[in-house]
Amino acid sequence: MEQHIKAPMNREDAGKLKAGDYVYITGTIYTARDAAHKRMYEALEKGEALPMEMKNNIIYYMGPSPAREGRPIGSAGPTTASRMDKYTPALLDMGLIGMIGKGKRSDAVREAIVRNGAVYFAAVGGAGALLSKSIKASQVIAYDDLGTEAIRKLEVENFPVIVVIDSEGNNLYETVTQG
């Protein structure tokens, strides 16, 4: 099924999405990769505030290439989501509603997705140049010293993803391999 959603996204909207749905996201999402996740986790351990609100937000696991002239961002393909798995349950418990990446997730992440009514999306790897066309604005909001791994606020329009793990724990990767 094809769905169009606004980001940030609430739990009710997340609950309507099913594994295998094609989704087009419009609104505000954030980027964060390994180094940024590690810093956020360390900040939480120290009782410090995170650089962005987790509640109802979507994090895209991506580090862009430099922007070409006239573009807000360079190639913007997904990175392997499992590298963020040790940090993800804590962020989901803080209200993170969605993640975009590629590849499988751990059982702990899947359990946290179900517990929090969240969703895991996949973006097509190797299509970073195409995906960047859906990004209308990009602004570094934290950890600028991390370069491409800095946290960015993105404005997206019809950003294409597929629901891999829905809020009920249905996993597209498992159902496809069973068929």
Strand and helix layout:
Layout: E1 2-7, H1 11-16, E2 22-31, H2 34-45, E3 58-60, H3 88-93, E4 98-101, H4 107-116, E5 119-122, H5 128-132, E6 135-142, E7 151-165, H6 172-178
Parallel strand pairs: 1-2, 2-3, 3-4, 4-5
Antiparallel strand pairs: 2-7, 5-7, 6-7
Total DSSP E strands: 7
Radius of gyration: 15 Å
Alpha plus pi helix count: 6
Q: Ends: how far apart?
A: 18 Å
Overall pLDDT score = 94
Q: Helical content, roughly? A: 25-40%
Largest β-sheet summary: 5 strands, mixed, barrel
How much of the residues is beta strand, in percent?
25-35%
Class by alpha and beta content: alpha/beta
- Unreliable runs: none
**Cross-sheet strand order for the largest sheet:** 2-3-4-5-7
Query: Given the C-alpha coordinates, what overall shape results?
Result: globular
Secondary-structure element series:
EHEHEHEHEHEEH
Written overview of the protein:
This protein starts with a strand and ends with a helix. Strand 3 (58-60), helix 3 and strand 4 (98-101) form a beta-alpha-beta unit. Strands 2-3-4-5-7 form a five-stranded mixed beta barrel. The model has no long low-confidence stretch (mean pLDDT 94). It contains six helices and seven strands, in the order βαβαβαβαβαββα. The longest helix is centred in the first third of the chain and has 12 residues, at 34-45. Helix content is 26%, strand content 28%. By secondary structure, the protein is α/β, with parallel strands linked by helices.
